[in-house]
Write a structure and sequence with these properties.
A mainly alpha (about 625), B alpha/beta (about 260), C alpha/beta (about 400), B: alpha/beta, 4-stranded antiparallel beta sheet, about 35% helix, C: about 400 residues, alpha/beta, Rossmann fold, 7-stranded mixed beta sheet, 5-stranded parallel beta sheet
């Protein structure tokens, strides 16, 4: 590569970085202040692109019309953002942490279907930006003028936001809130007003980013999810709530990607490395490295220790009523094959597997206090291990051994993850999951690449739907009961103790990190059991078993069911899976319908579906 | 330094940025002794406790507990060696009942923490109730710690700390935030329990009545330095202590 | 308690029982990633509906009406297998068909093999579905990645270019296209050819740096298998940076209306593509299809429409020939089955279950502000398949 080629690629990287910063900065702002994990941020950006497409066509009339359309679409999206905040998220600020995540997951599904219904399925390529439609010659290469505009816009937005946050009263309050939310509330700041404002600005920036993306990319229905993971990475790498941090993070990721592409293939010690292939996960590799070195991101600060006064709900061991109900449900489910149709068994096989998967995540998030956005890593890894082992071993042995690989992965990943906490920990789990996913996706010779592996069927005696259902039901039930038992074992108490008060736990001789590490590994191991069962139930596996949507599904199941109860994840898995199964048959807009139902459930049962069971008195609360 | 010293602190230093929180601090605590650490806010009392129980690493100096150095060890190891701790704002496990809190501390002592398949409820139920009884809150055994009153939480914390059978108990303002009558009761309880178990007490306290009523010895810190040490009567009349901390003799105990 | 339990059992069972099926209709169970790839699959569904309507209007099949049971597979193999189970076990469909991505197609094909049930793969382009992973129960309609690449290679080899830059979406389809292109080009040309590869993450191409890296590599010609948003981004960046100036560019699928139309007047003039020039095909079978489609939907057909229409017609022809809906009889009927499609008469090869459906190969031009294909010809799929010996060596025996 010549020096000039290198410099031009650097310039390309800067343009990419600027564009990434513009999308990310809105999230960095809202995430920093409200701590709402807003999955819908990418959807807002997508909405911005679509609205801009229509407005540009509608307003017509040259440069003035074009830029007016860009500004108006940003404002329109800001309006949508405020609506989401006002009517959805605001009702959930008092709810258990991360519940807003479930609600915004619903929003993602709705926005996607609404956009599909309004704008149709085809990609919409907007016109080039007036005044920036050509290219200029730099060092003998043609560089698009629009890239130069973006390179200027990134720092400009950074400057304007910094000014807004440093000099205006509102900005100072926002900064205070991102450092200490409770303190700001205690000072009598109108939090509702502050949050609405932050959401307005965050959505405005998302919409603007979408509109600005239009000359580089057609408005399309994959924009939301294509960008959301990357945006979270930028926010976390930069440090929660740090706008300059987000800028630097975007810069690192944008430039790293451009340089990976520029380097191309490189032979190192006789092994040909294809750097462009790294762009698939470049951002996650960057994040893993940054978080391993700086647990709070580049410019983040350690969060204040959890307040000892933080309200915790009492976790009670399953009482007699729950035992009776669980036993009755198990007997009922075991007898089901005698009279239910075959598909019911298939569906219940899925539900049993996901119930175990969700229960393992719940173990980690609930009693373990370690949120994970990448739990599919262990599920999928074990599924792959099962598929590969089954080539040489009997299926039964493969099923038994495969989860150990998940446990091993959890042991390795966990060692890094338990050094962090909260959202940072969750994001590191995501990074590991994505790196694992990309290996499965690209290692054709072993994992079958994007196709995955086929021919992963159970042994002859288990091949009927009925037999496999019984196997799954038994295995999942035993595993879930084992998880519950662990929760109420001395180790389980220690794990919960570390979550409740790391200080107190250490002061009575519990090693917080080692305990969490063990908990992390157990969660991975049990997710692995679910993954191996899944592989043989489907006959094939693909990288999808390791992917973000698989992790998010588990997360939504846990939160929907209720984080503070034992039966929550099981209920959540049953409800979400059967919801998806039934709604998909009845309406073309099944995605939006699932989204709406999820939102409704979250609003009506913020304590989770298990809350209903509690209210029915199954798990009697101690009078207080 | 006497033969029976359970804790020896030797030239301990700790600074944050440019601020010296502890400067060349040296003292010792004898087995079964009750030692109070007093001083104005920012004198370095909490820093001292955090260094002693391993939450913070010292910049220099040595901490010897039971004739072995514990400097640089993590808190859980120091705790297992026999140093208990209570916090200024009581730290308990909010998702557990008072009894479960104490049980968990007992598991730690009996190294049952790795038992992942045993039913925890069966373990140490009796002993935990006995400890709650001694702390005077056995009636609240099955109440969630998230719902207990402040004073009761302090007692739960005391029961937790005693469950670990410490040889030395570090108590950061054991009576802070309590009504005056409650303070005296709680402190008498602490002293009685400690005496019974042969536990040495190192505590910070703002209430001078408590300090002078219960401490065998008083250490006075100012800006990270030990400015006076000795029996209460001696310290009380130390002019330097009066100057920086206690104020004119007409207003004792109103620090 | 026991009574409540009984009642609950009865209620749950009642809810789970399938609704009584419409009297004796033949059910075509179709699963696809409708929400994941709507640009292709909405027209696809319209094509299917049109075919079913035509069949029923002319009296159905075996004196029974035909009914489509359509399911969304959520774009992932796991859900696809569950949906396939539902179609088989609960809906009791007679034929399983559909799927879009290679991963889902292969998973369902393997499922069909396991359950011994006929599966007509309509869209997945992966070569493996008929070769390496081929099985007795799976048949594929569309010309595969290999076949369509071969169609373009026929043109590319004529140019005698020595240094090729290959850009592709980094997953099964793009990788197979690249491998096939390299293999076929090397076989066609005696001179050594240099291939420079530029993989890009699917749906997330960093077009600026990729175009720049390609320009810096100074290739003689370009072969691309990009599509959808990746293609649009690549075209725009490439034009701005002058990558395509005086450059021969080949793009697999680039002439399909799904991907060509969004480019509007920026459609890259002169590119060699495979696709579907719907407005210019004058054969009577296409004209009939075009008129019927436009009359029903007031819209023009896309590539997906033709695939959807043809897969239903394939199922119909197989059922007619078998005189039954029994899977084994259908499998037997599929061997060498002849089907009339808008692209003309095709047949399903007995040797590998691949249909001989072809594709149109031509060059892109812009007419009235829209991209169109010119100088096109119909490349018959039968002419672009490897030798039988090769197929036998690469396809597992049934």
């Amino acid at each position: 590569m010549t020096l000039s080629a290198f410099l031009i690629q650097l310039l390309n990287g800067l343009a990419g970085a600027s564009s990434l910063f513009l999308v990310s900065v809105g999230l960095s702002l809202t995430f920093g202040v409200t701590r709402v994990v807003n999955f819908a941020h990418g959807s807002l950006m997508m909405l911005g692109a679509y609205i801009a497409y229509s407005l540009i066509a509608g307003l017509g009339g040259g440069a003035a019309g074009y830029w007016a359309a860009v500004a108006l679409s940003a404002l329109a999206v800001a309006g949508v953002g405020v609506l989401i905040e006002r009517f959805l998220l605001r009702r959930l600020y008092g709810a258990p942490e991360l519940l807003q995540l479930t609600a915004t997951f619903g929003v993602v599904l709705i926005v996607k279907d609404v956009v599909l219904a309004l704008w149709g399925p085809e990609d919409l390529l907007g016109p080039r930006a007036p005044g920036f439609s050509g290219s200029v010659n730099i060092l003998g290469s043609a560089v698009p003028q629009y890239d130069l505009l973006l390179i200027a816009l990134g720092p400009l937005v950074l400057f304007l936001l910094t000014w807004l946050l440093r000099t205006t009263r509102w900005g100072i309050l926002v900064r205070a809130a991102s450092e200490d939310r409770e303190m700001t509330a205690a000072l009598g700041v109108n939090q509702a007003w502050l949050f609405s404002g932050v959401f307005f600005l965050g959505a405005l920036l998302a919409g603007l980013a979408g509109a600005l993306q239009l000359p580089r990319e057609p408005a399309n229905l994959n924009m939301d999810l294509a960008v959301i993971a990357e945006v979270f990475v930028v926010t976390v790498v930069g440090g929660l709530g740090s706008i300059p941090g987000a800028f630097i993070a975007a810069l690192i990721i944008g430039v790293a990607k451009a340089l990976c592409i520029a380097i191309g293939e490189l032979a190192v010690f006789g092994v040909v490395l294809s750097f462009p292939k790294l762009t698939l996960v470049a951002e996650f590799i960057v994040m893993a490295i940054v978080l391993a070195l700086r647990p709070w991101g580049l410019f983040g600060r350690p969060p204040a220790l959890p307040r000892p006064s933080e309200q915790r709900e009492l976790l009670r061991p399953p009482g007699r009523p729950l035992h009776v109900i669980a036993a009755a449900a198990l007997i009922f489910m075991a007898l089901l094959p005698l009279f239910a149709d075959e598909y019911t068994l298939v569906l219940l096989t899925d539900i049993s597997i996901f119930a175990l998967f969700a229960a393992s995540l719940h173990f980690m998030m609930g009693p373990g206090g370690m949120p994970s956005f990448g739990h599919a890593a262990y599920f999928g890894l074990s599924a792959y291990a099962a598929a590969l082992l089954a080539r040489t071993l009997p299926m039964e042995s493969a099923l038994l051994i495969a989860p150990l690989f998940a446990g091993l992965a959890a042991l390795v990943y966990g060692w890094f993850c338990v050094r962090l906490s909260g959202v940072y920990l969750a994001m590191l789990t995501l990074a590991f999951a994505q790196i694992t996913w990309s290996i499965a996706f690209q290692w054709d010779a072993v994992t079958g690449g994007s196709n995955g592996l086929t021919g992963v069927w159970p042994a002859q005696w288990l091949s009927s739907r009925r037999a496999y259902y019984w196997l799954t039901l038994t295995a999942a039930a035993i595993a879930i009961l084992a998880l519950w038992r662990i929760i109420f074992s001395p180790f389980g108490y220690a794990l919960r103790g570390v979550r409740d008060s790391p200080l107190r736990a250490a002061a009575i001789g519990i090693d917080p990190r080692a305990t969490q590490w063990a908990g992390f590994t157990i969660a991975g191991l049990f997710a692995g059991i679910a993954g191996a069962l899944y592989a043989f139930s489907k006959g094939s596996i693909s990288p999808e078993t390791l992917s973000i949507p698989r992790s998010i599904d588990a997360l939504v199941m846990v939160l929907l069911g209720g984080l503070q109860t034992l039966v929550g994840p099981v209920l959540g898995a049953a409800v979400l899976t059967s919801l998806q199964d039934s709604i998909v048959r009845h309406t073309e807009f099944w995605r939006a319908t699932v989204g709406a139902v999820v939102i409704a459930l979250v609003l009506f049962f913020p304590d989770g579906l298990a809350g209903i069971v509690q209210r029915m008195g199954v798990r009697g609360r101690h009078p207080t | 330094m006497s033969e029976s010293a359970v804790l020896i602190v030797d030239r301990l230093c700790k600074s944050y940025g440019g601020v010296h929180a502890l400067r060349e601090l040296s003292f010792s605590v004898n087995s079964g002794e009750k030692v109070a650490v007093i001083g104005p806010n920012g004198a370095g009392k909490t820093t001292l406790f955090n260094v002693l129980n391993g939450q913070l690493a010292a910049d220099a100096g040595a901490v010897v507990f039971d004739a072995a150095s514990i400097g640089g060890l993590p808190p859980q190891t120091i705790a297992r060696r026999g140093v208990g701790r209570t916090f200024q704002v009581p730290a308990t496990f909010g998702s557990m009942t008072a009894r479960e809190n104490v049980q968990l501390a007992l598991f730690g002592r009996h190294t049952q923490l790795r038992a992942a398949f045993a039913d925890a409820r069966a373990f140490e139920a009796k002993e935990s109730l006995a400890l709650l009884e001694r702390a005077g809150i056995v009636a609240l055994a099955d109440r969630s710690c998230a719902t207990l009153a402040y004073g009761d939480l302090k007692r739960v914390e005391l029961a937790i700390a005693l469950a670990c059978r410490p040889r030395l108990l570090l108590m950061d303002e054991p009576t802070a935030g309590l009504a005056p009558s409650e303070r005296a009761t709680l402190m008498s309880l602490v002293v009685a329990l400690a005496a019974n178990d042969g536990v040495a007490l190192l505590f910070t306290e703002h209430d001078m009545d408590v300090v002078f009523a219960h401490a065998d010895r008083v250490l006075v810190l100012n800006r990270g330095r030990l400015i006076s040490a000795g029996p209460p009567s001696v310290v009380r009349s130390d002019p330097q202590v009066r100057k920086v901390y206690l104020g004119p003799p007409t207003l004792p105990g109103n620090a | 308690m026991l009574r409540t339990l009984k009642l609950a059992m009865v209620l749950v069972c009642a809810a789970m029982l399938p609704l009584p099926a419409a009297a004796q209709a033949i059910k075509l169970g179709e699963l696809n990633s409708y929400k994941t790839f709507p640009a292709f699959l909405e027209p696809y569904k319209k094509g299917m509906d049109l075919a079913v309507e035509e069949i029923n209007r002319s009296g159905g099949l075996l004196q029974r009406s035909v009914e489509l049971v359509v399911r969304d597979d959520n774009g992932n193999p796991g859900d696809a297998v569950r949906v396939a189970e539902e179609l088989l076990a609960r809906e009791k469909v007679d034929v399983l068909m559909g799927t879009f991505s290679s991963a889902v197609g292969l998973a369902v094909a393997d499922f069909a093999k396991q359950r011994r049930f006929i599966f007509l793969a309509s869209e997945p382009l992966t070569d493996k579905i008929v070769w390496e992973n081929g099985n007795r129960y799976t048949f594929r309609l569309r010309p595969s990645t290999y076949m369509q690449t071969a169609m373009l290679v026929a043109e590319a080899a004529k140019l005698g270019k020595r240094r090729w830059a290959i850009v592709y979406p980094d997953y099964e389809y793009g990788k197979s296209a690249t491998a096939a292109f390299r293999q076929l080009m090397t076989a066609q040309q005696s001179a050594t050819i240099e291939f420079l590869e530029f993989p890009a993450p699917l749906g997330k191409i960093d077009a600026g740096p990729v175009v720049q890296a390609m320009a810096d590599a100074r290739p003689d010609a370009i072969f691309s298998s990009l599509f959808a948003a990746d293609l649009a981004k690549f075209v725009r960046e490439g034009e701005l940076r002058g990558l395509f100036r005086d450059q021969a560019v080949f793009n697999l699928l680039g002439g399909e209306p799904e991907y060509l139309d969004p480019l509007k007047d920026e459609a890259p003039v002169g590119w060699y593509v495979t696709g579907y020039p719907w407005s210019a095909i004058a054969t009577s079978e296409h004209k009939r299809f075009l008129d019927a489609y436009r009359a029903k939907y007031q819209d023009y057909p896309r590539q997906g429409s033709v695939v959807g229409y043809s897969i239903v017609m394939t199922a119909a022809a197989a059922i007619r020939k078998a005189g039954s809906t029994d899977t084994e009889k259908l499998v037997a009927a599929m061997q060498g089955l002849v089907v009339d499609t808008p692209f003309g008469r095709i047949s399903y090869r007995a040797i590998d279950h691949q249909s001989t459906m072809g594709a149109y190969v031509g060059r892109i031009a812009v007419k009235d502000g829209k991209g169109v294909m010119i100088d096109w010809r119909y490349a018959n799929g039968a002419d672009y398949l490897p030798a039988d010996d090769w197929v036998r060596a690469h396809r597992p025996a049934d």
